């Protein structure tokens, strides 16, 4: 069996190991995979899941590959389970996984399949890491699914399998701050950010004078006068989430990045960085930062 080699970075695709990146405390997370990694993964030969398990767990008959597997106590019973991260692709040469699944099986061979939300269960170079985010010393399963579009959008899901009751506790399409805003007079953009709990209600004006030439050319402004009042900015979903112990309490939090675009997709005006912490069975936003691009 191919084993976890101990290369420990969050959301960094492991080139040679099939094991999960099991995030133990004290290790640093890193940034998104590069083009080089995409290429390497396409050359990687993935093992197919055996037909016995495919039948047993009612998986699709065709092309179910083991993307990663790792032994870890994910249900908290004190014994290790085997956690399989599975992907279905239509051609062996594809790097796009149409669907990904989690399969958890105990040492006696009893197990169950976790299906991801159907509207976002595929991706390029999907990855999974194990990390305790809820603070009970039982690791959660953190899945990243790059959508492959020009926006660099990545879907993230976090599952707990505590007591063998699998539950989706983080869904990047749902657990995200609300961002809105529009262009304002004098090459400025107003950005409003609200978190789901209503703790933050931020309004800020972003100075975009450095884009004067292009905005004038596109007819958005003329000598600082907004020509198309009400032109909205375009907040994007997450482009990256790092799993990190941000407050040094021995439990992981999420450091999430989402881009804000201006007049067009290529006009990246700001990056919003939010910190998410699991407290008393719910997500709490503990910080919101805005960086001008
Ligand atoms: Ca946990
Ligand atoms: Ca922490």
Overall pLDDT level: 88
CATH architecture of the largest domain: Beta Barrel
| CATH-assigned fold name of the largest domain | Lipocalin
Silhouette: elongated
The rounded Rg comes to: 21 Å
CATH class of the largest domain: Mainly Beta
Q: Which sequence of SSEs, written as H and E, runs from N to C?
A: EHEHEEEEEEEEEEEEEHEEEEEE
Q: Beta-strand percentage?
A: 35-45%
Named once each, the bound ligands are: calcium ion
Beta strands, count: 21
Structural class estimated from helices and strands: mainly beta
Q: Identify low-pLDDT runs.
A: 1-17, 27-42
Q: Order of strands in the sheet with the most strands?
A: 1-9-10-11-12
Q: Number of helical segments? A: 3
Work out the count of structural domains: 2
InterPro entries: Integrin_alpha_N
Keywords: Signal
Sum this structure up briefly.
With 293 residues, the protein is mainly β. The chain has 3 helices and 21 strands.
